[in-house]
């Protein structure tokens, strides 16, 4: 794993562990020499992760569509910023650069990115590992929904293996490797 794409919230969330565990993940990325590929913003958990990686000597690549420059504050200290025209180009570039994916807690944008990536894996467009950083059990209801979808016959049982989840960054990265 040289580069991992991380989907994360543009806010920090309401529980202090979201921020503290995100910082821990950033430190582990830097220690292992894993470059972050993400949306390029300074806000929320996205910014917390980028800051932590940079603080510990790691590399960060941000990818942002031009139209978001006013809405999202571009992180001024990242190693590299790639400007694209559309959200579709952003996601395609993130996928092109990444060896795997991790979703941190986040909202609709994070969910959309996660599910598109899982859908792509389901139809064979990639075989990259995907993990949920289940901080403070944030993704536990989603994992229950996935189980329900399998039981209801909408998701093949073998696709349960497409997503790994843990609250331990070392465990996530070991699984991804």
Automatic annotation (TrEMBL):
Keywords: Cytokinin biosynthesis, Hydrolase. Its EC number is 3.2.2.n1. It holds the Pfam family Lysine_decarbox. One of its GO terms (cellular component) is cytosol. GO terms for molecular function: hydrolase activity, hydrolyzing N-glycosyl compounds. The keyword Hydrolase applies. InterPro entries: LOG, LOG_fam. It is an enzyme of class 3 (hydrolase). GO terms for biological process: cytokinin biosynthetic process. The keyword Hydrolase applies. Transmembrane segments: none annotated. Belongs to the LOG family. PANTHER family: LOG FAMILY PROTEIN YJL055W (PTHR31223). NCBIfam families: Rossman fold protein, TIGR00730 family. This is Cytokinin riboside 5'-monophosphate phosphoribohydrolase.
């Amino acid at each position: 794993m040289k580069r991992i794409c991380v989907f994360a919230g543009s806010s920090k969330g309401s529980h202090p562990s979201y921020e503290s565990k995100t910082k821990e993940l950033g430190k582990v990325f830097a220690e292992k020499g894993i470059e972050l590929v993400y949306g390029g913003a300074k806000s929320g958990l996205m910014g917390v992760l980028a800051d932590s990686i940079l603080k510990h000597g790691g590399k960060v690549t941000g990818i942002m569509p031009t139209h978001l420059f006013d809405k999202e504050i571009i992180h001024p200290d990242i190693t590299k910023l790639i400007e694209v025209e559309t959200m579709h180009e952003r996601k395609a570039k993130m996928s092109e650069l990444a060896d795997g994916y991790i979703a941190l807690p986040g909202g609709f944008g994070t969910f959309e990115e996660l599910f598109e990536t899982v859908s792509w894996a389901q139809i064979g467009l990639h075989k990259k590992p995907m993990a949920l950083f289940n901080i403070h059990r944030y993704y536990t209801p989603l994992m229950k929904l996935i189980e329900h979808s399998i039981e209801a016959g909408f998701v093949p049982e073998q696709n349960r293996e497409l997503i790994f989840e843990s609250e331990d960054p070392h465990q996530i990265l070991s699984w991804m490797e």
